[in-house]
Amino acid sequence: MATAQLKDPSGADKGTVDLPAEIFESEINRHVMWQAVVNYLKNQRQGTVQTKTRKTISGGGVKPWRQKGTGRARSGSTRTVVWVGGPPTKGPHPRDWYGRLPKKVRSLALRSALTVRAKDGRVTVLTGSGVADGRTKEVAQMVKSLGLGDQKCLLVVDGHDPMVIRAGRNMERLNTTNAHQIHAYEVLWADHVLVTQKAVDALKEVRS
């Protein structure tokens, strides 16, 4: 049975807690985790890059020289791709990069990532989020009390909590999410995963 340290937001040790085996002792599939990471990063692309084509570039309306008799190759425009000042060849154009992995693949990738972190001892269960007023100072103090000030952390709560989001969004080394939106990329990005007790139960219901 996988276990993790149980602590309160002040950093006080409350013993250990058993982690659900169906989430934190799953099959580790590295290829599926790679798929999830690549898919996540691809979905962050805006796809707004644009280069000009022959019909949008200015100039080139006059034939540079007559068709025959000059000894040079025939040419109809100074704005073709082989001329200086012409458009790039096969340049990028706006496109939608969004892709969606099957639900079972996403679930396996998440369980694999959580299992990796649990096996490395990088999962800590908290008795609460430690955020009451939505102040960054509260989260910063909690992370410091846990001895994780120099590590990238992921704080997982059980549901949508605007106070937690507001408190954590100004911290460079902290991401916040909830059990219903957690992604394998976020788990693998973090050096340490902080999960509230309620979030552990929510993960069991959502991802098992």
Main features:
208 residues, alpha/beta, single chain, Ribosomal Protein L4, Chain: A, 6 strands, six-stranded mixed beta sheet
Could you outline the blueprint of secondary structure elements for this entry?
Blueprint: E1 3-7, E2 13-18, H1 21-24, H2 30-43, H3 103-119, E3 123-126, H4 136-145, E4 153-157, H5 162-168, E5 174-178, H6 184-189, E6 192-196, H7 197-207
Parallel strand pairs: 1-3, 3-6, 4-5, 4-6
Antiparallel strand pairs: 1-2
Helix pairs in contact: 2-3, 4-5
Short précis:
The protein is an alpha/beta fold and 208 residues long. The protein has helices spanning 21-24, 30-43, 103-119, 136-145, 162-168, 184-189, 197-207; strands at residues 3-7, 13-18, 123-126, 153-157, 174-178, 192-196.
Describe the structure.
The protein contains 7 helices and 6 strands. The protein has 208 residues and is an alpha/beta fold. The two termini are 16 Å apart. It has 2 domains: 3-45 and 98-207, Ribosomal protein L4/L1 (Ribosomal Protein L4, Chain: A), CATH 3.40.1370; 47-96, no CATH class. The radius of gyration is 27 Å and the shape is elongated. It has helices at residues 21-24, 30-43, 103-119, 136-145, 162-168, 184-189, 197-207; strands spanning 3-7, 13-18, 123-126, 153-157, 174-178, 192-196. Helix 2 packs across helix 3 (103-119). This is Large ribosomal subunit protein uL4. Part of the 50S ribosomal subunit. Belongs to the universal ribosomal protein uL4 family. GO terms for molecular function: rRNA binding; structural constituent of ribosome. Residues 55-78 are annotated as: Disordered.
